[in-house]
Automatic annotation (TrEMBL):
InterPro entries documented for this protein: DNA_bd_Ku70/Ku80, Ku70_bridge/pillars_dom_sf, Ku_N, MFS, MFS_dom, MFS_Na/Anion_cotransporter, MFS_trans_sf, SLC17A9-like
Subcellular localization: Membrane; Nucleus
Keywords: ATP-binding, DNA damage, DNA recombination, DNA repair, DNA-binding, Helicase, Hydrolase, Membrane, Nucleotide-binding, Nucleus, Transmembrane, Transmembrane helix
Species the sequence originates in: Temnothorax longispinosus
The keyword DNA damage is assigned to this record: yes
Domain Major facilitator superfamily (MFS) profile: 27-425
Gene Ontology cellular-component terms listed: membrane; nucleus; protein-containing complex
Name of the protein described by the UniProt record: Major facilitator superfamily (MFS) profile domain-containing protein
Matching PROSITE patterns: MFS (PS50850)
Gene Ontology terms: biological process: ATP transport; DNA recombination; double-strand break repair via nonhomologous end joining
Gene Ontology terms, MF aspect: ATP binding; DNA binding; helicase activity; hydrolase activity; secondary active transmembrane transporter activity
Bilayer disposition of the protein: Multi-pass membrane protein
């Protein structure tokens, strides 16, 4: 099968417009820069979509719509722009295209920000992206048409294949410059920088196209142009090029759109510039290698058809093998190597099917290439949009709303950790494993998805339990390196990563070794891994060396650093408090600071009972459905004499206001009442300051939060101002009255901010209104009318209080019901023999308290039993059994 399709007319007056050698060099540099910029702007959205979607709360399906909308516009203008370029000249269409996609890229941040609060923001951004794709769809058809018009047949293939290498340069530009601007500035700067550079190239292109306008206009009037579509579409070589180009585009554009998201989700610890640059470095050498290989094959005597088929086969073999291997890789190095090979295969494609339009129909190359690109871009609409949307609900539930943490314990296995304490008759390492077992039981009982692990670091090899202890050396640097490698291999999205160093002494290390360990601890900060140092034993001293390690890994200043206690850390691992909001604290107009709102803990919960199938042991789900009217008729007895009653829709209930507004009471339906709300932006707005009362926590209204400064804020002196405000309120005994709005379109509550200088923040408690509290006026009036309290009564109560004075903490008392459930689960899961029932700590505490005050009970009875304890209680009416 010959590659040439005879579609050209014998006379070609456009040879008069051929470029000279100087013009050819000038246009090559200009078109190479244009191809570089068009791919830089095209890959900017895939680079920034993970960051923008997280900021704007876009889901994966929303991101897919925005990414795929580009191809909807990309397919609309391919054929038309190629046809017009073949008819009037490609340089004009090329300039219009450049002006369009440059301007839309430059204005993209304004479009996203202006419509971010609108419910249709995703569709509007997708529409802007589609317009950008429509203008970019005009670039390659007009460029290949321009090349076919200005170059001889022998020069077209190599000229166009070298120009397509600009796509790799553009992607490298986005990966280097875009990643740098994203890390040091923001995502808006990336759009504006690339859009501004593209507009500058558009101005340069306009300067280049001016000398050709008169020639093009004079020849356009004397040259007729018709495109024989029927003859073109009936040729098998054309359809083979279309199908091959579609397969290549399918692979290339899916990677182009989703590769940044793939690395962001699978390997979040890797720097952005690495994944956005390294794979694209393979395209340039492969393009030159494909060009040299094509020339060598042609020199040996093979036809152009055989040459193009050979190069394209090499492209597909490399890409197919790399993609199949990519499915099974687990390490970052293997993944980036596979993707580099896939992108390198595209360099061979640029010397094969990509240059076939000039071989098939040189005079109609713009139209042919436009039709090839149109058919090739259609699969990307669905594949880019539907990528990973099947498991999106499960992914979002576990990634954004689930709690998944990773805690790795680095346990010192030196000689001192195995020394037995005489008081407890346990060694430090035995205490740790006992504590670790307790934490693990709690997490398994609550079916938490957290990750936990233990690493024992020693100097020599281990053969058994007693051989773990090492008498010499303290390889903390190697242990931290090993722990980092473990976290790098975890592909699951984690909300928190922590390394807990368990030790009981401060080793004597050389200054060089301490410097190595400090450098390794500082590198944990880049991976968002926090290091905690916990010392066991009463004689352990928190050395400055360990303080430096904690501060270096946590991005913490010395002013806000606090030593981690074992009790607090265990509580954070078992039932962690969470950051639920990052808000601005509005002190006055023009003065704001950044705050973080945290929960105070997690509510205790018992195990849930689920129904299982006796046949398969699968968990049974309960569903509720409503039958239609026909189903009820079928189920009803045909002999029933009851008539069919009409279906009555109850009237909507109107709610009336308690107070008169404007001289009359207003009535609202339930639907209207839900619409009435005050909309405030998410923030904490100060209203005033008042003294802290003695009975502040008398009324418990819902749950309370804790507010601290945002350590990651970029505001200048944010921590300094927050610390000054906290210390001032604590020393003056004042609390802040504020309006608290957690999220957009949610209720705004009046709250108190009670200072706590020891914990470094404020308690946030909702103000109790009269409707939230029971009416105690009658009882208080009764007690006020009684006689005054005697000194004898005061002395008795003081004696009782002294005996009941205990060190109470909620976490000292375990839930008896939960402990019984855990014991039952362990019995069935581990096939253990049933042991003794767990100890009811609450009941034991009650018995101890009763023994302490047993001799005081008769005195209380003699003092108060004959007196009225309060107002008489209202008697409840008995329920009649008949009713």
């Amino acid at each position: 099968m010959q590659l040439q399709i005879s579609l050209d007319t014998p006379s070609d007056d456009r040879t008069a417009l051929s470029w000279s050698r100087r013009e050819r060099q000038k246009w090559f540099l200009s078109l190479l820069c244009g191809t570089c910029m068009i791919y830089a702007t095209r890959t900017s959205v895939p680079l920034l979509i993970p960051v923008v979607s997280q900021e704007k709360n876009w889901s994966k399906s929303d991101s897919g719509i925005i990414l795929s909308s580009f191809f909807w516009g990309y397919t609309l203008t391919q054929v038309a722009s190629g046809y017009i370029s073949d008819k009037i000249g490609g340089q004009r269409v090329l300039w219009i295209s450049a002006l369009g996609w440059s301007a839309t890229t430059f204005l993209m941040p304004e479009i996203i920000e202006f419509f971010s609060g609108d419910g249709t923001s995703v569709l509007l951004v997708a529409a802007m992206r589609m317009i950008n794709g429509a203008f970019q769809g005009m670039h390659f058809p007009s460029m290949i048409s321009l090349i076919s018009q200005r170059l001889h047949e022998a020069e077209r293939a190599s000229f166009f294949s070298l120009l397509t290498s600009g796509s790799a340069l553009g992607t490298l530009l986005t990966g280097s410059l875009g990643s740098y601007l994203l890390e040091n500035y923001n995502w808006m700067t990336v759009f504006r920088a690339l859009g501004g550079m593209s507009l500058a190239w558009t101005a340069l292109l306009s300067y280049h196209t001016l000398p050709f306008k008169e020639k093009t206009a004079s020849i356009k009037s004397t040259t007729g142009y018709t495109l024989p579509w029927s003859k073109l579409l009936s040729q098998p070589p054309f359809w083979s090029c279309v199908i091959g180009h579609a397969c290549q585009n399918n692979c290339f554009f899916v990677l182009l759109s989703w590769m940044p998201t793939y690395f962001h989700d699978t390997f979040p610890e890797v720097r952005g510039w690495v994944v956005n640059m390294v794979p694209w470095l393979s395209m340039l050498p492969c393009t030159f290698l494909g060009k040299a290989l094509s020339e060598e094959i042609i020199k040996t005597g093979y036809s152009v058809t055989v040459t193009r088929k050979t190069i394209q086969t090499i492209c597909f073999v490399i890409e197919i093998g790399s993609l199949l291997f990519l499915v099974k890789v687990e390490s970052f190095q293997s993944a980036i190597l596979c993707l580099a090979l896939v992108i390198g295969g595209s360099g061979f494609h640029n010397n094969a099917i990509a240059v076939n339009p000039s071989d098939l129909a040189p005079k109609h190359s713009g139209s042919v290439f436009g039709l090839m690109n149109t058919v090739g871009a259609i699969p990307e609409m669905a594949l880019v949009q539907d990528y990973n949307t099947d498991g999106e609900d499960d992914l979002q539930a576990s990634q954004w709303y689930g709690v998944r943490e990773a805690t790795l314990f680095l346990v010192d296995a030196t000689q001192k950790m195995f020394e037995v304490e005489p008081e407890t008759k346990l060694s430090h390492i035995q205490k740790f494993f006992k504590l670790y077992k307790q934490i693990l039981r709690q997490k398994l009982a609550w079916s938490m998805q957290d990750w936990m692990g233990v690493v024992l670091f020693v100097k020599s090899g281990m053969k058994g339990y007693q051989s773990m202890k090492s008498e010499d050396g303290y390889p903390l640097h190697d242990a931290l390196t090993y722990a980092m490698d473990i976290f790098l291999k975890i592909k699951t999205v984690l909300t928190k990563r922590r390394i807990v160093l368990i030790t009981c002494h401060t080793p004597q290390l050389a200054d060089d070794e301490k410097h190595r360990i400090r450098s390794k601890a500082a590198s944990l900060k880049d991976l968002d891994i926090k290091l905690y140092v916990i010392g066991l034993g009463n004689n352990w001293v928190h050395d400055q060396f360990y303080k430096d390690l904690e501060m270096l890994s946590r991005k913490t200043d010395i002013d806000v650093y606090r030593m981690t206690s074992l009790v607090d850390l265990v509580q954070q691992i078992k039932a962690p408090s969470k950051n639920i909001a990052r808000l601005s604290f509005q002190v006055c107009d023009g003065l704001e600071i950044d705050l973080v709102v945290r929960t105070l803990g997690r509510k205790r919960r018992c195990l849930q009972t689920k129904s299982l199938s006796k046949a398969t042991n699968q968990v049974l789900s309960r569903s509720t459905y409503f039958k239609g009217e026909e189903a009820y008729r079928k189920d009803s007895d045909s002999d029933s004499e009851e008539p069919d009653l009409p279906f009555v829709i109850p009237e909507e209930v109107n709610l009336e206001t308690k107070k008169s507004i404007g001289g009359m009471k207003l009535r609202f339906t339930q639907k209207e009442l839900h619409r009435i709300k005050h909309i405030h932006p998410p923030a904490i707005k100060i209203i005033g300051v008042r003294p802290i009362p003695d009975d502040l926590f008398r009324y418990h209204i819902k749950r309370k939060y804790f507010v601290r400064a945002d350590y990651g804020s970029t505001r200048k002196d944010n921590l300094l101002f927050f610390g000054a405000l906290l210390n001032k309120c604590a020393t003056q005994g004042r609390m802040i009255v504020c309006a608290f709005t957690m999220r957009m379109n949610t209720q705004t509550n009046l709250c108190y901010m009670i200072p706590n200088a020891e914990l470094g923040g404020f308690y946030l408690s909702r103000i109790a209104f009269q409707g939230d509290i029971g009416d105690k006026s009658e009882a208080l009036l009764h007690y006020d009318a009684q006689n005054c309290v005697t000194d004898k009564q005061v002395a008795l109560w003081k004696k009782a209080i002294d005996r009941l004075d205990v060190n109470y903490h909620p976490y000292m008392f375990k839930s008896y019901k939960l402990e019984c459930q855990i014991q039952m689960v362990e019995k069935y899961a581990l096939d253990k023999e049933p042991g003794s029932p767990p100890i009811d700590i609450i009941e034991q505490s009650f018995l101890k308290t009763y023994k302490k005050t047993a001799d005081l009970v008769p005195e209380f009875k003699n003092m108060y039993i004959s007196k009225s304890d309060g107002p008489t209680k209202a008697k409840r009416a008995r329920k009649n059994k008949e009713t």
